[in-house]
Amino acid sequence: MHNNINVQDEVQEGFILQLDGDLARLRVAPNADCDNCGSCNIVHMELLAYNPVKATPGQKVKFTMIQNNMLRISFMIFILPLLSIFAGLYTGSFAASILKLNEAALMTAGVFLFLTAAIFIIYSYDKRYKQNRSNFPQIIEVIK
């Protein structure tokens, strides 16, 4: 399925702006040809990368992006909150029919409860995700 993927295409380049412990803030051009041209007003992206090669600010480096968790992250950010809203609506409606109470109020309370739980789950996952250095882009080589 992925036989045509070239590992070289996954390696990108950037400049180190500053260091924060074993993490480096990189300035990354959207295209390798955009590094220092200056002929257009294209915005460079900044990202944090794990710096195991101990590169210093101002150096140009090669780094790899971690792609294996993107589906899980997308689910956590987009699908989980949506599912929690529907679960809250259904649970509130079901509870209102059993308890013979105001359906709109219980559906609102259900959405609030389930959405709060989803936000807490996302926050906890994000905190655990950031503590694992292998989830950050990895600097693999200093170019200059």
How many distinct helices? 3
Strand content: 15-25%
Bulk shape = elongated
The H-and-E topology, N to C, reads as HEEEEHHE
The chain-level structural class is alpha+beta
Low-confidence stretches: 1-9
| Spatial strand order of the main sheet | 3-2-1-4-5
Q: What is the second-level CATH architecture of the largest domain? A: Beta Barrel
Largest sheet: 5 strands, antiparallel
Radius of gyration in whole Å, from Cα? 22 Å
Task: Describe the protein in words.
The protein is an alpha+beta fold and 144 residues long. The protein folds into two domains: 70 residues, OB fold (Dihydrolipoamide Acetyltransferase, E2P) (Beta Barrel), CATH 2.40.50.140; 62 residues, no CATH class. The longest helix has 30 residues. It starts with 6 loop residues before the first helix and ends with a strand. The relative contact order is 0.18. The N terminus is likely disordered.
Walk me through the topology.
Blueprint: H1 7-10, E1 11-20, E2 23-28, E3 45-50, E4 60-64, H2 70-99, H3 103-131, E5 138-142
Antiparallel strand pairs: 1-2, 1-4, 2-3, 4-5
Main features:
OB fold (Dihydrolipoamide Acetyltransferase, E2P), alpha+beta, about 45% helix, single chain, disordered N terminus, about 20% strand
How would you sum up this structure in a few lines?
With 144 residues, the chain is of the alpha+beta class. It is built from three helices and five strands; from the N terminus they run αββββααβ. The protein has a five-stranded antiparallel sheet with strand order 3-2-1-4-5.
